[in-house]
Batch of 4 targets.
Target 1
Amino acid sequence: MTASVTVEGVNHWFGSYRALRDISLAIGAGEYVTLLGPSGCGKTTLLSVLGGFLMPDQGRVLIGSRDMSRVAPARRPTTTVFQDYALFPHMSLRDNVGFGLRMAGQGRRLRHARADEMLALVGLGAAASKRPHELSGGQRQRVALARALAVRPEVLLLDEPLGALDLKLRRSMQDELKAIQREVGTTFVHVTHDQEEAMAIADRIVVMNAGRIEDQGPPARIYRQPASLFAAGFMGEMNRIPAHETAGVVTCAFGAVPRPAPASGPLVLTLRPEAIRIGQASVDRLHIGPARVRDAAFFGTHVRAHLVPQAAPDMVLVAHLPPDHLPGPDDVLDLVAETGDLGLFAEP
């Protein structure tokens, strides 16, 4: 079973500090949504409101069509997986996974059957009799996930569940989480500050900043066409190029940009490192022009280079160049960028 989640005009204060500001959000049944943002942006507070651990000062939370705004966590059709897996060290994995069912009064035979089913789902069917201390960090994370799913929640809440894992294991678990979500069909709401993690697993990313939703949408759109300068910068490395508008034409150090200005006053062009290319000027390209290589390093899939353009010697651009050639310091490269890869925002 799965359910939609609707947040309507939620505000929350901690004393005089406003942690959530007019949050409205609709999550479809069976959707995998990530709440993404820096520390202190409100993402964990919002997850706590969804789980019932905090009651909003204003607004409503609906799960399905039911108003859950004042319903205690134990009475909500949600479960939460925390970064600290909180497994019982004296219990077997089977008993850990079946613990919620035991608290709900389910008999031993049925809860053990359900626990074994969930352990098999997360690839630990043969380890049901083991104790948590016998497992790796990734395996303990799977047990915590199995325990949360065993009670058949309509919505599963995940609070940075992969934060304690090393990079390689975290990436492996990202793939597993998405595969499990597709199999069970439960609505997942996942908090993270890791942009790559959010893009790897989410159907939709909700970017938060200072208690507000800055942007939301599919990962590719959020990355390539962010709705705000904050979202553009938070979603990955970004070159910022000062620009201005004169007589309806936007210009920067590299020439005119065929884009309407979003506002009067100072502007900023944004350009991802991978969007900078070595090539010839053309009508559909921004010609950055000759640029001196300050340094370059091989990263396997690309060469990461810092470049100083001749047209703007006080500027340093970061570019991800093809991996088949490592330029040397002081090499000069002729650079271009497709105009469709440029973002344009008002300077805050």
Target 2
Amino acid sequence: MIILGTISVGLAVFLMGIDEHKALALGPGGPLMEDFWENMRRYGLYALTVSTGVLYSVFQPIVELLRNPISAILVLTIIGGSIFIVSQVVSAMIGLSDFSYDYSY
């Protein structure tokens, strides 16, 4: 087992030495840092494109419904009612309303 382990470790070290392009972090300007900032830029761009795509997919059907006057009234009523309900729930959650629970036991 020891001989087999030694041979496998030696083979791994040999295969690592064959690679000409080693990734060495040579301080703040090293190749790994350049790749890091390039990946960070790509992830930010990815997050921006995904979020704008989701917003477009959500609002496109609503814009289509707003072109018809009857459905526009319904959509605006639903949006207004939703905003009102959410504002009432949030104000009750943070204690801005005067509503109190009277438990009668």
Target 3
Amino acid sequence: MSETATPLEVLERRREVLLARDMDAFADLFAADGVIEMPFGGPGLPARLEGREEIRAFSAKVDLSALEISDLRVRDVHRTTDPEVVIVELTTVGRVAATGEPLEVPCIQVFRIRDGRILLFRDYVGAGSVPGLDLD
């Protein structure tokens, strides 16, 4: 991502790479000292990942094969008085591969993006709301 990319351009690129399941490209969107926080992550999920390489390592080990994600449907994007901070309401849409069960998982995500890189990604989604995801 270019250092001149706007926060919304970074978020669109994030959507593209996640739908393509390109977890290396996902990790590359973060600053070297970027952070992911998952306050409601639950069992098997770390509450915090620090640094691009820790994010890359965790992203590589998460088994997404149990889920077939077809869309990250953005419901709303909220800009704040801080131009680096964006709040996104979205629903992950797809199905559980083993059962064909439809999947719709709503969440709220808070981002701090500076110079085309994600500094902070705080994900408010509970791991229990993602059926079939194996994190162990």
Target 4
Amino acid sequence: MKKLKVWARKLKRQLFVLYLAYKDERVPWFAKLFTACVVAYAFSPIDLIPDFIPILGYLDDVILVPLGIMFALKMIPKEVIAECEIKAEEMMKKGKPENWVVGSLIILVWCIISFWMIVKLSQFFT
């Protein structure tokens, strides 16, 4: 159980590193795009495979997120990662970053998708 807690803390720290690296101008645009997707997916309350599905629901969190973090870290310059690791430690002591603008955009996107699906389903059944 202790190893699992250490692994989870390391994963959380790496997400903070990616969150900070995304904002750095030395990171290439394609790395920023991929990093933004990884961080958004990790912090999103909506998963690709819902958690209520036995076993498979948690596999995306255990496999997809760590793989995404690993690939994103490989795309970012080492000096940026080193600087962001120091900042991430400080940030973890203070708590999780709050970004209501991004959260609102995610909710808006999901509302649009839901509305579109309702319209399409109503057209299908009429």
